[in-house]
Amino acid sequence: MLQEFGFAPFQVVLLSVLCDREEITQWEVAQRASSDANTVKATLLLLERDGLLVRESHKEDRRGWVVAITVQGRRTQEEFSSVFKPLQDVLLSSLGVGRAEVLLADLHSLNEDMGRWEGR
């Protein structure tokens, strides 16, 4: 599905993260996407190149960056959401709300555990 748009799955994840806030630091993007800083930086540069976000130097931390989604980026994310909504509806109706919430909690827990394991 995403290939039709010319996007990789992780690009969609980052656009979703950016839609939640007006501005967010690049470090916060990495935390919210549960990814490493280098992968996030490389992906953000691609999205910036395509006009889907803007990055500016952090006002207080010269090493940091602040990221904001553009109007075009928000529109693109809305297109993704509309494409995936039917799939989400099928999955939710199959699992039911309770099981879906448990699944999400379990996946979040596994992700945290993997992060601790990788840090060893």
UniProtKB/TrEMBL annotation:
SMART domains assigned: HTH_MARR
InterPro entries: HTH_MarR-typ (IPR000835), Tscrpt_reg_MarR-type_CS (IPR023187), WH-like_DNA-bd_sf (IPR036388), WH_DNA-bd_sf (IPR036390)
PROSITE patterns for the chain: HTH_MARR_1, HTH_MARR_2
Keywords: DNA-binding, Transcription, Transcription regulation
GO-annotated molecular function: DNA binding; DNA-binding transcription factor activity
Lineage: superkingdom: Bacteria
Domain HTH marR-type: 1-112
Entry protein name: HTH marR-type domain-containing protein
